[in-house]
Amino acid sequence: MIDRVIDNRGFDSFDWRFIGLVLAILFLGVLSIYSVTHAQQGGTPFYLKQLMWIALGSAAFVAMLTVDYHKIARLAYPLYAIILVLLAVVLVIGKTSRGAQRWIPIGPFAFQPSEFAKLVLILVLAHYYSSAPRIGWLQRVVLPGLIMLPGLLLILKQPDLGSGLSFLAVYAAMLLMVGMRSQAIGIILLFSLMLFPFAWELLWGSLHEYQRHRIMAFVDPEYDPGGKGYHGLQSRIAIGSGELLGKGLYGGTQSQLKFLPEGHTDFVFAVFAEEWGFLGVLLLLALFVGLIWLSLEIASRAKDVLGALLAAGVIAMLCFCVVVNIGMTAGMFPIVGIPLPLMSYGGSVTITTMAALGLLLNIKRRRLTLFY
Amino acid sequence: MASVGFQDVELGELQRRLTVLRIGLLLVVALLAFRLWHLQIREGSYYRDLSENNRTRSVILEPVRGQIYDRNGVLLANNVPSFTLYVTLEDVKDREALIQQLTSLLGLDPDMVRRKLATKGGKLLPRKIKDRLSLREAAVIEAHRLDLPGVMIQVESQRNYPGGAVAAHLLGYVGEVSAEQLERSEFEELHQGSMIGQYGVEKTFDRFLRGKAGQKSVEVDALGHEKRSDVVEKPEAGDDLYLTIDVRLQRLAEDLLGEEAGAIVALDPTNGDVLAMASRPAFDPNVLSRELTPKQWVEIVQDEGHPLNNRATQGQYPPGSTFKVIMAAAALETKTVSPSTTVRCTGGYQFGRRLYRDWKAGGHGFIDLEQALVHSCDVYFYTVGQRMGIDTIADYAKQFGLGQPTGIELPSERVGIVPSTSWKEKVKGEPWLPGETISASIGQGYVTVTPLQMASVIGTIANNGVAYRPRLVQAIMDRATGRLQELPAVARGKVEVKPQTLKLIQEGLAGVVREGTATRAKSVLISIAGKTGTAQTAALRTGPEKDIPKKFRDHAWFVAYAPVEKPRIAVAVLVEHMGHGGSAAAPLAKEIIEALVKLPPKAPVVAQGPGVPTASAPRETR
Prior knowledge:
The structure holds two protein chains of two kinds. In chain A, 70% of the residues lie in helices and 3% in strands. By secondary structure, chain A is mainly alpha-helical. Chain A has a three-stranded antiparallel beta sheet with strand order 1-2-3, with helices on one face. By secondary structure, chain B is α+β, with helices and mostly antiparallel strands. In chain B, a hairpin with a 6-residue loop joins strand 11 and strand 12 (274-280). The longest helix of chain B has 25 residues, at 18-42. At the A-B interface, helix 8, helix 11, helix 13 and helix 14 of A face helix 1, helix 2 and helix 3 of B.
C-alpha cells in the first residue's frame, strides 16, 4: 500500500489530461449548441447561456476539488434531506415542460433537482458504505435500497425516467463495488424475475402515455413514424446521414431545419454526429473513454473506501448517461430523457457533472496526503 | 454472508472490482461504435436520402397557358395572377384540425377539403385545395402561417377571358384535370390540380396551350415552412393560338341573337375560316374555369336553355327549306328535271290519302327550278324528291357534307341525320315509306343538320363546289421560338355538280334575296344570295304564328353568301322558335354580311391566301 503511494508520487495532483478532456468535450458541446440554435431569435443565445453554466460549473468544480471529500461526504444526509424536499417541492410548484414537472423556476432560469439528486445519491451511498463498521447483506442491499427509495419515487413521480434509471445505475455500481456475491446476485435476479410481472404492471401503468408510445416505437421502429416514433426516427436519420465525414458545421439539415427536436439538449449527440460524421463520433467517443479511463485510474488508486466508492459512483453516473444518451439517439434504447454530460445544454446537468468531476480530482489529490 | 468491516481490509478488493467496470465500459463503447458505424457507414446513404427527402419538397410550377387571339390579334384568353392554396400532407400533423382551421378561416366546405386531401399521390406532393383566393383570403392564411404547417400559398396564373361570354362556346373553358382523365395516356405528364382545356378550342388544342410544368425544390423546416427554394426545371409556357374569327363579327353575331336561342355561323367559303360562330344562350367561361360548387354545376347543366350546348356544332335541326339547295343540285345532276322543267303547284301535293301542303296556301302555279328556289315552292320539291327517291337525295346530301362531321376543331361535333332506306332499316328496323321521302324533300322528317353544316353547304355552293373543312385555328405561335406556324386550309373535296348546275342554283339564291322569300336580307351595300328555311318542330299547323306557344313554334333558318359575284362570306343563321326564316333569320344574316363591308379592315396576323405567313408580333403586349 505504501509502496504504491510512493510509486505514484510523480502523479501530478492536478491532472491536465483530465482537464483537457473535459474542456474538449465542453467545447464540442458549445459548438453543437451554437450550431443548432444560432438561428434562434430573441433572448440570450443558448450557447452564451451554456458558457455561463460552464462558468458556474467550473466554480462547483473548484469547490468540490478543494474541500476535503470526507467533509463533503459527512454532509451527505443533510444534503439528501434537502434534495428530497426540493424534489417534493418540484411536484407541487414545479414548472411543467412536455408533460413532466422537473424544474423549479428561479428568476429567468429553472433548476432541476433531479440532476443534483444523482450526485447527492453518490455521496449518500458512498458515505453509508464507508462508514458502516460491519456489513451484512441486509445492510448492504436492503438498507441502502430503502435509503434510495424516497428519492427514486419522487423522481419517477415527475416523471423523470432517465434520472430514475441513473439512480438505479449508481446503486447497482455501488452494490458491485461492495461485493455482491454471486448467490446474492442470483437471489436478486430471481426475486426480480418473480416480481417482474407485477413490477411491469406497476411500471407500465405508471408510465405516461408518451413514454409508452416511445417504448412501443422502440420495439417497433415503424410504429407511427410521424408521431410517437418521430424523435427516434429523426435522430437516426440525423446520425446516419452524417456518414463518414459529416455535413460540416452548421450543415446538419436535420437539426438546422428543426426536424430533430431538442437538438441542443437530449439530442445534441445526433446534431454532432450529423455534422461531424463517423470520424467525429469516434473522436468524441475517444474523449469520453479517455475521461472515464482516467476516472477509473483515480478510483483504483483512491486512498480509502470512501474515495473509491465516490469515484465509482461518479463513473457509473457518467458512463450510464453517456451510453444511454448515445444509445437512445442511435436507436439502441428507448428514448428516455437523459442529457449527454458536458455536451447537452442545461444548467443543472452541467453544474452537477462538473461538480462530480471536481469530486473525482479531489479524490486523486487527497490520495497523496498520506498522513492526512 | 460474512459481516466484516471493510474499511481498509476491503479497499484492495474493491479496487479490483473496478476491472469489471473497465471491461464493461470497453464492451459498451465498442457496441456503441459498432452501432454508429452501422448507422453512418453501412446505412449512411440510406439515411442521407431520407434526410434529403425530409427537408425538400417538390413543388410543381404550373406553366403559363398559351394565350388565344382572334385573327387580328385581339386577346380572347389570357392569364391573370391568382393565389392558390396548397397543402402538403407530409407536414400536416392533424388533418381534421387543419380542415377545421381552413373551414373557419376561409369558409371552405369541409367535405371538399377532405376530398381534395384524399386525392392520390405521395405525401410530399402538395395538393391543390383552392384557387382564386382573394388577396384578403391569402393574407388571412399568411397571417396564420405559423399555425398552419404544410399550408402554402402559391401565386399562379389563372385563365381569364377578357371578353366574358364572348365566343364562349368556341374558346371553351379550362378546368382541373379529373381523376379519370389522369388515367389516360395523353395526360400522363399531368398531375392532380393541373388545368386543362375542358371544352372548345381550349380542349382541342390543349396539348399546344397547356405548356409543360416545371419543378421547384423547396427546402422546408420541420413545420413545413419554406426556407429556401431552387427551380429545378423551368415551366414552359404553352403556345399561343390565333383563331380565324374576327371578334367584331363574333360580338355582332352574338348581339344579333340577343336573348333568343340559336346559332350564327359565318365562314370564309374560300378557305373554311370560321369568321364568327355564335351560340345562344351562352355562359361565362370565367365562371366555369374556376372552382365550381356542385350546386353551381348542377344549375348550369340543368338550365333549360342548355347554355353549355354549342348550338352551331351540336344543335341538330331539320334544315327545312334550306335543304332545297341540295335538292336542286340533285335534281339537275340526276337529270330528274331540266332548268326549264315546270311543275304545277296548286298549294298541295296529294300522295295516297294524304295531302302534303305547300307553305303558300294558293300555290305557286307552273313553276321552274329557279323560281321554286326563289319562292321556296314545296310542291316542286315534293315532286322532284318523289321522282328521285330518298337514296339519291341522301347521296347528294352526303356529298355536301351532311350526316358527317365537318371536322371543325371543336369537341363533340354532332353530325345530324341523312335518312336513306338503309339508314332506316338499320336504325329503326323498318322499311322506308314513300311518304317519308316527301317530307325529306323539304328538309323535314328525319333530316337533321347542324348550323355549321349548313354554313358549309352554302359556302360550297358559293365557292363553286369546292368545300373546305371549317377551321377555327389559323396559326400557332411557339412561345419558345417565337415562330408562327400557320395551319393550312384543308379542302374537303369538290362536289360532283356541273358548273352550270351551280350557276343556276346561285342565280336562284340571288333571286331569293332580290325578290323571293328573303327580301328582308336585301342590302344596299353588298349583293347577297341565300335561302330561307322554316324547320317544323311539330306537325304543320295552320293559323297565325302568334297563337302558338313559343316552344312549339318553328325554327327560323337562313343561309346566305356574299358578295354574289365573288363570295367572301357564307352565313348560316338559325333562331329557335322564331317561325319563318325570311322574317326572323334573314335580317340577322344581312347585318353580319354588311358588317364585313362596314367594319374597318384590320391587318390580319396571318397573311391570307398562298402568301408567306407573316411573323408579325401580336398586338397585345404581354
